Amino acid sequence: MELWYTEKQTEHFGITAKIRETLVTEKTQFQDLAVIDTIEFGRMLVLDGMVMTTVKDEFVYHEMVTHPALFTHPNPKHVLVVGGGDGGAIREVLKHPEVEKAVLVDIDGKVIEYSRKFLPEIAGMLDDPRVEVRVNDGYMHIHEHKNTYDVVMVDSTEPVGPAVQLFERGFYQAIFEALKEDGIFVAQTDNPWFKADLIRKVQKDVKEIFPVTRLYQANIPTYPSGLWTFTMGSKKYDPLQVDETRIPELDTKYYSPSIHKAAFVLPKFVEELTK
């Protein structure tokens, strides 16, 4: 008998993957969690029926939610990741030697626990001495830490359940206050095919708070539509003004100095969402 996992990405559209094995399923305090081993994408973390990451394509998301901001900021010593309990963003942050401390705040400790167990290639740097892991509410952490961080990354699920408040204007204002005077933040902001209104709203809210607001994109095959966006808000530095010839080559699979600028070149229908 064949077993398949299907994510209904909209009411009328989904993706499906053949399953080799179900490694764990649990209803945590905050969400339904599963780790399944698929034939095409390997081990896959699923929260509330949505694919969060897979061992085959995770590098795209984790590289693109981190490196554009970290190379835009000239000296990112203190970095916060809100969500991201799988540890992939932290792994990429630590590739920057100037980072002295990386704080991970995820509300669901079970995500961290099972990522350590079943996704070691993603979560393997959570025990690095530069990392502080907190099982806590990222929304409250932001509000309680003013003028603390050089870069803040919001590595959240889609705006459902506990992540809804992470897409509100008040949260972006609190991030502005949690950043130092030249700080930068970046958040994943879903896809333009199914969530155009969300992107348009986030762009409007962030523009009202941050002097520099940029939308950029990446291709992530297991995310809805495959075309994924990120929104960057900066108090001072513009990612488009970065001298790409001065970006060092990292141990990456997707991000590169050329991609740094290219990711901000948007299809016209996506660019329209920023106006």
From TrEMBL:
Residues 2-235 form the PABS domain. Spermidine binds at residues 62, 86, 155-158. S-methyl-5'-thioadenosine binds at residues 31, 106, 137-138, 162. The keyword Transferase applies. PROSITE patterns: PABS_1, PABS_2. It is an enzyme of class 2 (transferase). Pathway: Amine and polyamine biosynthesis; spermidine biosynthesis; spermidine from putrescine: step 1/1. The active site is at residue 155. Pfam families: Spermine_synt_N, Spermine_synth. InterPro entries: PABS (IPR030374), PABS_CS (IPR030373), SAM-dependent_MTases_sf (IPR029063), Spermi_synthase (IPR001045), Spermidine_synt_N (IPR035246), Spermidine_synt_N_sf (IPR037163). One of its GO terms (molecular function) is spermidine synthase activity. Its EC number is 2.5.1.16. It catalyses: S-adenosyl 3-(methylsulfanyl)propylamine + putrescine = S-methyl-5'-thioadenosine + spermidine + H(+). Keywords: Polyamine biosynthesis, Spermidine biosynthesis, Transferase. NCBIfam families: PRK00811.1, speE. Homodimer or homotetramer. Belongs to the spermidine/spermine synthase family. Catalyzes the irreversible transfer of a propylamine group from the amino donor S-adenosylmethioninamine (decarboxy-AdoMet) to putrescine (1,4-diaminobutane) to yield spermidine. This is Polyamine aminopropyltransferase.
